[in-house]
Write a structure and sequence with these properties.
Chain lengths: ~260, ~200
């Protein structure tokens, strides 16, 4: 299957795909939630990405991408992490955020784990199938963490179906530090640093997990992402976005460190 | 003293091999003052004896059929060649416990490229016990303290420039520690050097 690259030419198709998957339900972000919203209270530990990782000039991007080939995040994650599949739920905001945490766990050499987006979302939504924001997911990931999927079956929105021990297991996967992301230069700088970013995209009404900096066939710089629409989407869930469609404008965060289960 | 004629060397050596009991391979010293027949070339032989020389060597004295007495000085050496020097034992592969401590907010782009390289990670994971790249301020949310398993590594790295890599053997003894090399190749070689 050829690499899926989302540009102006096919962006509308992606929106239609999303609407079809959700069967007319509320789309993620349709309420227009903003980055660093206070709707969910103060989220501790935020630091501007540019403060931690000074923006790498655009003129350096291509060279650094070429030099780093084979060592970016998806080179570590794709062999060990199967794609998420949110099914017909509106929980992309949880799936994409959780995938970012999975990726940073892999970067830190922890055993690959498939984490449960539902263990993040359901306690917040009460099991209601609704959209959310990356800030909402992040707040939960920092306070309670997220259990492994073996404790909470994928797409099961009933908290009673979670297995005993899921709360304690979630404490092994808590985000300790994270960076706020302001613009595409921040995203690219983080990607070059092998730091994943959960990115909310207004044009799509969707949230995905950014992993890699990439050079697109037309020579421009874009990003490689993991979607949460199962293995049939893109290359086993992995696809590319150009700058226009990959710029997070509906909230974003980059987990930097997590608890360490060993 | 006359040099031993070259044509006599081979038969003499052959004779020595025959006359000296094979069982005395450890001591090939001929018995002095014992007369014996020394085979010469062209089916000739001579009456011969080994006589002790004042310096500890032996004289081989024999008379030819023409009545001529000949004497040769023989320096006895250990007939057993010295054994080859014992080669150093090959390095015994040790299953390392490998931990790297980093400050995720300060790790440079170059270090991140090295740390993310799949080659050394594959080696470290398959051949050794790779604990991981530990954030320097990691805590267990249950206790608010560093996880006990990681605390020794964090303590070890505390006073060093990060990222800091530590190898221990299965008994927990530190084999090597230092700053993470600047390239993935160097890091792979470092692991192979200490752990195979």
């Amino acid at each position: 299957m050829p690499t899926l690259i989302i540009t102006d030419a096919n962006a509308d198709d992606q929106v239609r795909l999303l609407r079809a998957r959700l069967n007319g339900h509320e789309l993620y972000g349709w309420r227009g939630c903003l980055k660093r919203t206070t709707e969910y209270g103060c989220i501790e530990g935020v630091q501007p990405s540019d403060f931690l990782f000074p923006r790498i000039p655009r003129s350096e991007w291509k060279r650094l991408i070429l030099e780093g080939r084979g060592t970016f995040l998806s080179d570590l994650t794709r062999p060990v992490l199967p794609p998420h599949d949110q099914g017909n739920t509106n929980y992309c905001w949880a799936h994409g955020s959780v995938r970012a945490e999975e990726a940073i766990l892999v970067y830190h050499g922890q055993a690959p784990k498939i984490l449960s987006a539902e263990s993040v979302a359901v306690p917040l939504t009460g099991g209601k199938n609704r959209g959310g924001s990356p800030d909402e997911a992040l707040k939960r990931l920092m306070s309670h963490g997220c259990s492994e999927q073996k404790f909470w079956p994928e797409n099961d929105l009933n908290i009673k179906h979670a297995k005993e021990g899921w709360i304690d297991n979630a404490l092994d996967h808590v985000i300790l530090r994270w960076a706020d992301v302001e613009n595409f230069a921040d995203q690219m700088t983080l990607a070059l640093h092998r730091i994943p970013v959960a990115i909310g995209l207004n044009w799509w009404g969707h949230l995905v997990c950014q992993l890699d900096p990439v050079i697109l066939p037309d020579g421009s710089v874009g990003i490689g992402c993991d979607n949460s629409w199962g293995p049939d989407y893109g290359e086993n869930g992995y696809f590319l976005l150009d700058e226009k469609h990959g710029t997070a404008d509906l909230g974003a965060f980059a987990p930097i460190s997590t608890t360490f289960a060993g | 003293m006359k040099p031993l004629p070259s044509q006599m060397i081979l038969p003499f050596v052959c004779w020595l091999l025959l006359i000296v009991p094979q069982a005395t391979a450890q001591t090939l010293t001929p018995a002095p003052h014992v007369q014996f027949t020394l085979p010469l070339t062209q089916s000739q032989s001579a009456s011969a004896q080994f006589l002790p020389a004042p310096n500890g060597d032996l004289w081989l004295v024999y008379a030819t059929s023409s009545g001529e007495l000949r004497t040769y000085a023989l320096t006895l050496t250990n007939p057993t060649p010295p054994p080859d020097p014992v080669p150093p034992p090959p390095p015994i592969p040790v299953k390392l416990t490998i931990a790297i401590v980093e400050n995720p907010q300060l790790t440079s782009l170059a270090d991140r490229q090295t740390l993310a390289d799949p080659t050394w990670r594959k080696w470290a994971t398959e051949k050794h016990d790779f604990i991981g790249i530990i954030p320097n301020d990691v805590i267990d949310k249950r206790t608010g303290q560093p996880p006990p398993r990681l605390a020794p590594f964090l303590d070890r790295a505390r006073s060093h420039n990060l990222p800091w890599i530590i190898f221990t053997n299965p008994a927990g003894v530190i084999i090597w520690e230092g700053q993470v090399p600047t390239t993935a190749t160097e890091l792979t070689n470092l692991i192979k050097q200490f752990g195979g």
